[in-house]
Amino acid sequence: MAEAVKWCRVRRLALALGTALLAPGLVGAASASPAEVVMSPHRAVYDITLLRAQGGSGIADMSGRMVYELTGNPCVGYSQNMRFVTNVVNQEGVTSLTDLRTTSWEDAASRAFRFNSSQYKDRKLTETTVGDASRTDGPGRLKVALTRPAKKQLDLQPQAMFPIQHSRELVVRAQRGERLFTADLYDGSEKGDKVYTTVSFIGNKRAAGNVEGLEAVESAKPLLSVPSWPISISYYEPETQRQDALPTYELSFLYYANGVSRRLMIDYGSFAVRGVLKEIAFLDPGKCEETAKPR
């Protein structure tokens, strides 16, 4: 795989889903708070293709598939599982296979976050990141305990959000009709030791039934009754002066009120990839007392 397509960057396309999840019907409630946003479990399959690539990107073509699954409920929190397999052809015509697998869990109060990511290149394990993050009492900082790739203890800024916490706040901002939302985000990416500053731009609400620019997907027909918003999120390196620098990458997607994301795109500047929804199944969240915490 070309050096430009590192697993921690490719993972961003999957994280688009983790930043855009909410329960059906909630968006109509003007006074909803982040704590009232309930996630809607589902499993979605996306086809991945290369949107564009500049000459110096090292990429001639890319194709693959991503399967994303969200499970859980407000009692025990939510788990996200993703597998992202891509074939990349470099500019010398050499093809490589990358298989990225990630799992994470975040408690309903967004006080604890667990993550585990592994990357395989040509079917050989090349990198693993495992860790736990938690919030101390009150306005305390984030405490992160990494076990892979190396044991490490980190103390991060208190304002950094976890992925689902960020999504809940993003929902509230969309409900209010706000256009801009800035937040620091910790998602365990890179080697689990970095916080990104994010700037989210929220577009005009699309009325239910608006399918302009979307591919027909039989299993997605229930979305015809659900409104959506176009969302674009720019990611900046820590301590970057945003007014003076370009983002490390930009992520955009169409964000439905029942928790589905489609029309995904991630732009690294020298190249960009697209994710197109192919099929989707909504999952039973189960009763709180019957849902076990992840192992």
Using only CA atoms, what is the Rg? 18 Å
Counting H and I runs of at least 4 residues, what is the number of helices?
A: 2
Q: Looking across the biggest beta sheet, what order are the strands in? A: 8-7-6-5-4-3-2-1-14-13-12-11-10-9
In sequence order, what are the helices and strands, one letter per element?
A: HEEEEEEEEHEEEEEE
Q: Helix/strand-derived class?
A: mainly beta
Total domains: 1
What's the end-to-end separation, in Å? 32 Å
Q: Can you summarize the main beta sheet?
A: 14 strands, antiparallel
Q: Give the mean pLDDT.
A: 81
Poorly predicted runs are: 1-31, 290-295
- Strand % is over 45%
Helical fraction equals under 10%
The total strand number stands at: 14
Overall outline: globular
Question: Short summary of the structure?
Answer:
The chain is mainly beta and 295 residues long.
Polypeptide structure, described:
This protein has one domain. Strand 7 and strand 8 form a beta hairpin. By secondary structure, the chain is mainly β. The two termini are 32 Å apart. Strands 8-7-6-5-4-3-2-1-14-13-12-11-10-9 form a 14-stranded antiparallel sheet, with helices on one face. It is globular and about 55 Å long. Helices cover 8% and strands 46% of the residues. It contains two helices and 14 strands. The model is unreliable at 1-31 and 290-295 (pLDDT under 50).
